[in-house]
Design goal:
The protein is an alpha/beta fold. The chain has a single domain (17-201), classed as Hexapeptide repeat proteins (UDP N-Acetylglucosamine Acyltransferase, domain 1), CATH 2.160.10. It is built from four helices and 16 strands. Strands 3-6-9-12-14-15-16 form a seven-stranded mixed beta sheet. Strand 14 (175-178) and strand 15 (183-189) form a beta hairpin.
Length: 203
Amino acid sequence: MPATTNSSSYAPERVGLLARFREDVEAARELDPAAGSTLVTALTSPGLHAIWVHRVTHRMWQRLGLRTAARLVAYLSRSFTGVEIHPGARIGRRFFIDHGMGVVIGETSEVGDDVMLYHGVTLGGRSLDKVKRHPTLGDRVTVGTGARILGAVVIGADSQVGANAVVVKDVPAHSVAVGVPAKVSARQVPHTDSDSEAAMYYI
């Protein structure tokens, strides 16, 4: 997924399952200041366990056609981790869920690389039709505790969604969305050679 566009097309890079598992652990240790050693993180992080199971169930769903089995395994994972990820959801590399509990990711959700969700986040739908009905998150997006992103909206790369926000419209890249319903309260423009820091424009 391009880092600076709101394109909804998603074509994850092919990476081996074990390599993805290692990347996930490294991301968890980098993003969670409370993380311990690699072993402790791997054994005690429900967010990691949820994404690892999803990486398996997604392959069962997409490549092997074992959809009933994938749903059953995902259900068991939800029971143990408190995280519900539909096997059909597409999730990129180095994905991390902090704390994990209460996260719901719907079937047609698409998540880019280096995305972080806090607990209680919902990537939900607003339609009962069998179409693309869940959000698309660009690369390096962070979603705060309790936020709800609903419908086939696009959250542009390098954006942040504030805690408890309810997002029902697209969010441009490099933005901050807060409130109910969420509004883009600040737009961060990457710095250029002449800028010492990124400029913030309130809109």
